[in-house]
Amino acid sequence: MRVSLRWLAEYTDLPELPLEELCERLTLAGLEVEDHREIRAEGIFVGKILSVEDHPHAQNLKVCEVQVQNEIYTTVCGAPNVAAGLLVPFALPGALLPQGRVEKAHIRGVLSNGMILSREELGLEEKSSGIWELPSDTPLGEDLVKILELPDTILNLKITSNRPDLLGVYGLAREFSALFDTDLRELSLAFPEEETPADALTSVEVESGEDCPRYVA
Fold first, then answer.
1. Measured between alpha carbons, how far is residue 75 from residues 41, 52, 117, 134, 162 in Å?
2. Count of beta carbons in the 10 Å neighbourhood of residue 67
3. Which fold has domain 2-39+151-180?
4. How far is CA 143 from CA 56, 69, 151, in A?
């Protein structure tokens, strides 16, 4: 099971330990960490692909114009799903990705000034088949690092069959709280209703309190 440490920190304070030591402590406690991945990025913004043209010297590459805020960048892209009109994560020259810095580069004679990214290149999944097509309501020009709440660390935990209580973030937060003697914050189960309240649409009456001492819906 993969879990975000940033997400866990919403429910319990995490110990101030080096990552390797944290993983070792968890493994010794029976919560084996199979691997981990640190996701760090900067200089990544929401861009809009304005145009896509064939690369003059490469059959499988495209030359794209991408708008980020008030600037337009020319970049070379080989993803099969690249298309005009898409909102995409765009790394400016000098941006930091998990695998290193993005630099200007001449690709088959065309200057590529930035990079359209996949989820894989952002460290969000192991393998991507194309660039990440962002939802159409994503604010153009926004800092994607802030939207994604990076940096973050993802732990890949081996959950044994006798611990189904650890198959959720709150269950893991409870385990972290016990292991590291930190407070566990209450899980909010309040769900705001919109338009017609649920109790105006239906009702339940328990006719036999002995047979059904508690009913939850």
1. 19, 10, 11, 18, 51
2. 17
3. Phenylalanyl-tRNA Synthetase; Chain B, domain 1 (3.30.56)
4. 32, 10, 13
Alpha-helical regions (H) of 76-161: 144-147
Q: How far is CA 103 from the centre of its chain?
A: 24
For 39, the 3-state DSSP assignment is strand
Q: What percent of the chain has pLDDT over 70?
A: 100
Strand extents, DSSP E, 19-165: 32-39, 42-54, 62-68, 71-77, 87-97, 100-101, 105-107, 110-112, 115-116, 152-158
Q: Is the pLDDT of residue 191 over 80?
A: no
Select from 122, 104, 129 the least CA-distant residue to 42: 122
Mean pLDDT along residues 28-50? 94
**Domain 42-147, architecture per CATH:** Beta Barrel (2.40)
Q: Which two tokens stand for residue 180?
A: 């590291």
Task: Classify residue 177 as left (phi > 0), alpha (psi -120 to 50) or beta.
Answer: alpha
Give the DSSP H/E element, type plus range, for residue 7.
helix 5-8
Cα–Cα dist 42/63, whole Å: 24
Q: Name the pTM for this structure.
A: 0.74
Q: How sure is the predictor about 187, in pLDDT bands with cuts at 50, 70 and 90? A: confident
**Does the pLDDT of residue 115 top 80, yes or no?**
yes
pLDDT tens figures, 48-71: 999 999 999 999 999 999 999 999
